[in-house]
Amino acid sequence: MSARPSARRRVTVLAGTLAGLALSGTLGTGTAAAHGSMQNPLSRVEGCYLEGPEHPKSAACAAAIALGGTQAMYDWNGVRIGDANGRHQQLIPDGKLCSANNAEFAGLDLPRADWPATNLTAGSPFTFRYRATAPHRGTFRLYVTNGTYDPAKPLAWSNLQSTPFLTVTDPQLVDGQYVLPGRIPAGLKGRQLVYAIWQRSDSPEAFYSCSDVVFDGSGKTAGTAPVPPAGSGTPHVHDSAAATPATGSGTGTGAVAPVAVPAAATGSPAGTGQGTPSASAPGTPAASGTPVGTDAVPAGQQLAQTGTDRSTGLIAAVGTAFVLSGAAMAVLRRRNRARGTHAR
């Protein structure tokens, strides 16, 4: 008679443990996230992913993978800092800009003059595109390297022009890509680099990318980069932190509006003499004029209104707990019936 209560207790404990694991697994997924990267001009990380992490075609991607492994390239849409909140330069030291100081992406920081590059024409209109696997409200700031840049040396903040040449808030989302119309700064020559910062306004989270570009025609023709297939990259999970407007993002303060609002693309092309140079470091708001050929663009209606809504996951976890408990009790009943038949 004593064996049955003992077995019942064991099964009950097992069911409770499994249910707890189901709940903790659901509630504990609020930190990892992955959302996108510069598509055109193609970023280093996405370019290496498209080459194939197991068999990269370029020497630069092969070297990056040899240093950091293949997983970084499969996680091409996750070069990020969850609590950046506009503090980009404070959180990312010189030499770590392309990886956002994330050890997983250390290979992206390798100083090399042979990273695959995109052809651009200085002083001309250009539509930048940013691949988004999880859309969010926020502001994009694009910087270009200055005369101190040497691709064979680690990239430092001082190698970037002090103000972004293009700033766009809540851009249009078309075919899974944010559309950022602007103008290439004039006077650029040879091999340079475009550094993109996407600071969310509904969260402190920010994303970073390095795109190698050339102005001598020796790179890949702009606009021909393949688009990653839907569902590629690390699956998106919303951050568990409460959604708060990010400071230093240039999007203002206060609660996020429940619907997309009109926004304008702003910024002064570096090297053109337009606007007043700012002494602020990259990643901080800077007053500037509107680049020629850059019109105001409506905020994409597809932008996600994100926050900390885990109710769906919680409901699923509770359901899983009940299923596990029911299965455990069914096992217990079968064992009891088997014992009764054996006793007779």
From TrEMBL:
Transmembrane regions: 313-332
Transmembrane helix in keyword set: yes
Name of this protein: Carbohydrate-binding protein CbpC
Pfam families cross-referenced by the UniProt entry: LPMO_10 (PF03067)
Entry keyword set: Membrane, Signal, Transmembrane, Transmembrane helix
N-terminal signal peptide: 1-24
Record InterPro entries: Cellulose/chitin-bd_N (IPR004302), GlcNAc_Chitin_IntDeg (IPR051024), Ig_E-set (IPR014756), TAT_signal (IPR006311)
Gene name tied to this protein: cbcC
High-level lineage: Bacteria, Bacillati, Actinomycetota, Actinomycetes, Kitasatosporales
Coiled coil: none
Annotated Chitin-binding type-4 domain residues: 35-213
Stretches the record annotates as Disordered: 221-297
Biased composition regions of type Low complexity, renumbered to the chain: 240-294
